[in-house]
Design goal:
The radius of gyration is 18 Å and the shape is globular. The longest helix has 21 residues. A three-stranded mixed sheet has the order 2-1-15, with helices on one face. It has a single domain, classed as L-arginine/glycine Amidinotransferase, Chain A. A hairpin with a 5-residue loop joins β12 and β13. The mean pLDDT is 93. The protein has ten helices and 15 strands. By secondary structure, the chain is of the alpha/beta class.
């Protein structure tokens, strides 16, 4: 599986609790301390950028725009993705107040600086109430042309199949739930896919035949499965991403809360594949309901 060495991030300007996304993101926690939360989120963001760059990972930072307050702009991977085939994709978002995150200036910058074969915009499905939130909804194995997707209000089967078919991918679909039986809002909270490993919350996939199918596919594509529990999933242990720095070294980026939730043997297993890089983003996790993987949009495109 190809690993990105270039990451796109968006600096938050109006970060905060999003009432619209809280309808089905049960990882969010309400707060009234708007100004304090924004300051803390900005501090966490800057620290994460600095940590990534200090480990020789290229980070492209765009400033969020002040018009149309966008509390979740720090999570660009939900509206934007790129592929090693040179495709830039724009996705339909569940929350109306998130749709302003989709920016033509970012798309133009990518087109000016990278070799872009095509830009696919799937936003038309928003009018039909059908959504597919990028690499939040889809955990993509580019080498094997496979997409893992947990169906939820944010991940529509019809749009998923359209996207997969248009890009010659196949989809492995399943249902993942939290301990209260609610569908987990994004697949990249349930699982993470590295070059030679997969982190998977097996407890969340209650249908035995679905779990067997997911496991068999991961194993047949030479991914060692490292299971996590639902409690660890709540700590965002499934929301991690393996990247490759400029020297070709594999790094596994996860939040500090995710790292702290892992047992010794899990840390050892993951550390055998890549150097673990824990970064603290507690405010962004607690209020925004997303973690470090959600904050990074991988740029697989070739530079001009």
């Amino acid at each position: 599986m190809p690993l990105s060495s270039t990451i796109l991030m968006v600096r938050p300007v109006t970060f905060g609790f999003n009432e619209e996304t809280a309808a089905n993101n049960f990882f969010q926690n309400r707060t009234s301390e708007t100004q304090k939360v924004q300051q803390q989120a900005m501090s966490e963001f800057e620290n994460m950028v600095n940590v990534l760059r200090s480990h020789d990972i290229e980070v492209i930072v765009f400033e969020d725009t002040v018009n149309d307050p966008k509390p979740d702009a720090v999570f660009p991977n939900n509206w934007l993705s790129t592929s090693p085939d040179g495709i830039v994709s724009v996705f339909p978002l569940y929350a109306v107040n998130r749709r302003a995150e989709k920016r033509d200036d970012i798309l133009k910058w990518l087109n000016d600086n990278f070799k872009v074969k095509d830009i696919q915009d799937w936003s038309e499905f928003e009018a039909e109430g059908r959504f597919l939130e990028g690499t939040g909804s889809m955990v993509v194995d580019h080498d094997n042309k496979m997409i893992y997707a947990a169906i939820s209000p944010r991940t529509n089967l019809f749009v998923l199949e359209k996207f997969a078919g248009a890009n010659s991918y196949q989809a492995m679909v399943f249902l993942a739930t939290d301990k209260n039986g609610n569908p987990v809002y994004h697949t990249n909270v349930v699982m993470a896919l590295g070059e030679n490993f997969a982190v998977l919350c097996e407890e969340a996939i209650e249908e035995e035949w679905e779990l067997i199918a997911v496991r068999q596919l991961l194993e047949s594509t030479d991914h060692k499965i490292i299971p996590i529990s639902r409690d660890q999933m709540i700590s965002f242990a499934g929301n991690m991403m393996e990247v490759k720095n400029k020297e070709g070294k594999n790094l596994l980026v996860m939040s500090r809360s995710a790292f702290d939730s892992l047992h010794y043997d899990q840390r050892q297993a993951l550390g055998s594949f890549a150097e673990i890089l824990p970064i603290a983003v507690p405010t962004i996790e607690n209020i925004g309901g997303g973690s470090v993987r959600c904050m990074m949009a991988e740029i697989f495109l070739e530079k001009k």
